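HOLO CASE FILE
Compound: adenosine-5'-diphosphate
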Amino acid sequence: MKFANIIVDISHEKLDRPFGYIIPKELEDKISIGTQIVIPFGKGNREITGYVIEITDKPSFDINKMKYIIRANEGAATVEKQLIELAWWIKKEYSCTMNQALKTVIPVKKKIKNIQKKTITLNISEEEAEEKILKYKKSNAKAKVRLLQELKDIKHMSKELVVDKLNISPSTLKALESTGDILIEIENSYRNPVNFNNLERYDIILNEQQKAVADSIKKTMDYKKSEKANVHLIYGITGSGKTEVYMDIIDKTIHDGKQAIVLIPEIALTYQTVKRFTRRFKDKVSIINSKLSAGEKYDQFERAKRGEISIIIGPRSALFTPFENLGLIVIDEEHEGAYKSENVPKYHAREVAAKLCNITGATLVLGSATPSLESYFNAQTGKYKLHRLTSREKGKLAQVSVVDMRKELKNDNKSMFSMELKQLINDRLEKKQQTMLFINRRGYAGFVSCRECGEAVKCPHCDVTLKAHNNGKMVCHYCGYEEPIPRLCPKCGSKYIAGFGIGTQKVETMIKKEFPQAKVLRMDFDTTSRKGGHEEILSAFANHQADILVGTQMIVKGHDFPDVTLVGILAADMSLYASDYTAAEKTFQLLTQAAGRAGRGKEKGQVVIQTYSPDNYSIESAAKQDYEEFYQEELAYRQLMQYPPVAAMTEILIQSEDEELLDRFTDALTKYINKLKEAKFKQLMIIGPAKPPVAKINDVYRRMIYLKSLDKEKLIRMSDYIQELINTSQKVKGITLQFNVRE
Ligand code: ADP
Ligand code: ZN
Ligand code: ZN
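Model generated. C-alpha cells follow.
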C-alpha cells in the first residue's frame, strides 16, 4: 500500500502541516510527487484540493483511521520535485505557510490546451485543379473556385487565412475534403510570445576585461550541487557590457546542455532585452511575464520542460521555470527593488535564486552598476566572487554638476530649473540633441495644503496626503481615491489653498512655458497605464518625435538612447526624505542610474543634479559616480545602527480594520516577544511597537515590530515561535500578520 503526504490548499496557519492519505490502487500510476489531488477533509469530509509532497510505504498514523485520496486533478499543473524542496525553504526562511510557499513556486496553476494549427493543402495535381475549377464554375460554387484557384499556386494555406482572407466556410472545406480535393491537417503547437523575423546576425568580440570576467566565471561552473552556492557579482558601470558577458556565459551553459534563467527588473525592458538575446540565440529564447495570456504562460513552461527553449527572460517569478537541467541564473540590475516580492511570502529573488542554485548546482551571476549594499558586502566578505568592468565600449561617462537650489533662490531665480540647466536645455535644443528630465513624483504637485492654517488634505482611507493633479483633482497615490481640489480650505475657509512642490505634470507644463519651441513627452504611471503605453512613449522618443522626455524613475532604468546628451535631475533630495533606512542607498542608485542615461552615443553627456542638500554623502558620491566612497559611508551608518547587511532584520507588520483591537493585540504580542527574548534570545533587539510611516492604507490600520540580530538563525527561530503562538491562539480573529525579512 502507498501513502501520500499532502499539503491542503487552505492558507491557514492551523492547517500548515502535511496530512497523510492512502493512495487507492487504481490511482497509483496517476499520482506522483507534485500532483494536485482531491481529498475528503475534516469531519464533514468536504472535498478539497491539495498537493502531494511525499509518497511513502509507511502510514503516518493508524491505517484504519486514514482516508483515501478521491482522484488526481488532471486539469492542474504539477509541481517539479526541486521546486517543492525550494518551497520548504521559502516557508522556513520567510515564515509563511507551506501552501503559500507552494503557490509561489507554481506561477501557472492550470493546464491549458495546446493550440491547434490547421493547414489546408491541395490534394490533386494542378491540371486536375483546373478541371475542377471549370466544373465548380458551372455549378456556381464560387467559394470552391476561390479556394482552388488560390491553392493551385501556393499549395498550402493556414486555415485562418482561408477563413479570414478568402471567406470560406467550414462546410465548404468539409465538402472539398470529402471529394478529395484538399487535405486538412491538424498540428498541435505551443503558443510562442516571441516573434522576431530576420534579425541581423550578432557579432561582438568581448574586449579584454569582459573576456577575463566571463572566463573566470565560466571556470567555476561545474553544475555540482553544493551547500555553498556559486555566486558572482559583476560590478560594472552602465554600458560596460555586462549583458555581453551574460550572453557569453549563457553560450557556454547551452553548449554544456544546460539552461538559463535571466531576470530583468522591469517589464518595459523586455522588448529590447529579448531582441538582443534572440539575435544571438535565435528561437532558443522565450519570455514569461504578467502581460502574457494564461495559455502563453503555461506553454512557455511546457516548452521549458521539454527542452524546446534554453533561455527564459522574465521578472522574479521566472525563477520557477521548470527547466530539467538548470545551469545558470542571471539577475540583471540586481539592486532593483522589484526583485523583492510585495506579497506574502515576501521573498527576495536574489536569495531564492541562490537557494535554487544549491538545489540544482546552477551558478548565479548578479550584475549592477550600483550593487545593493547586501551584495557588495557579500562580495567583500567572500561569500560572492567580485568582478569589475570599468570602461565603456561606446560613449563616455557623463560630466556631472551639482546645483544648490538655495543659491538659485538667493539669485532671484524662482523657476524650478536652475540657470545652468536652462542654459544647457537651450543649447541641446539648438543642437537638436535630446534631454531627459527626471523627477521622482508623478502628478502636478505635492500635497495640497493651506498657507494660512497649515492644513494638509489627507486621504479619507489612507494615512497619506492627497497629491494635486492637473485635471483639478487631488489623488491618493496609495488607493486611487480622488476628489476635486477645494477652492477654500476645509478647515479655516481661507482661499490660499494650493498644491505645493512639483511633479511630472508640472515639469511638463513649465517646460512648455519656458521653452515653447521644445517638443515634450511625459512618462509616468498616469501616461503608461494603458497596455503598450510604455513602448509607445519610448519608441516615440527614440524616433526623435520629442526633444525632451520628462518622467519618474521609469525613464531611468536601463534604456539606451544614444542621442540623449543632457540629463536633469530636478529634486535629487526627494527620496532622501523617505523614512526607511535604505533612503540614502535608493537615492544614490537613482542618481547614478539617471546619470548613466547621458552620453551613450558619440557626444559626451552632461548631468545636472538640482538639490537642497548638496552636502549629503549620497548626492556627493553620486555626482562623482563613486560607488566605493558611497559604500564605505553607508556601511558605516548601517554598522552604527545595526541595520542590514551588518545585522539581520525582520519586520512584523500587524494589520486590522479595528484600530483598538489592533493596538491591544500588538501590545500583547510585544510583551510575548520580550519575554521570549529574556528567556532564549538575549542578544535580539526589539524595536516597537510603532506606527509605520503610513499607518493606514485602504481603511486597514497598520503597526510594526522590528526584530534585529547579528545572528540570522536566531531571527528565523524567533519568527517560528511567533508563528506558533498565532497557530495556537484563539485571539487573532480580525488580525493579520506579515513577516518581512529585510535583505
Ligand atoms: P551594460 O549591460 O553593462 O549596460 P551593454 O552590454 O548593454 O552594457 O553594452 C552597452 C553597449 O556597448 C551595447 O550597445 C553593446 O552592444 C556595446 N558593447 C559592449 N561590449 C562591446 C564589445 N566588446 N564590442 C562592441 N560593442 C560592445
Ligand atoms: Zn486653512
Ligand atoms: Zn487612499
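CASE NOTES: The first strand starts at residue 2 and ends at 8. The pocket of zinc ion (ligand 3) is lined by residues 459, 461-462, 476, 478-479, 481 (CB under 6 Å).
CLOSED: yes
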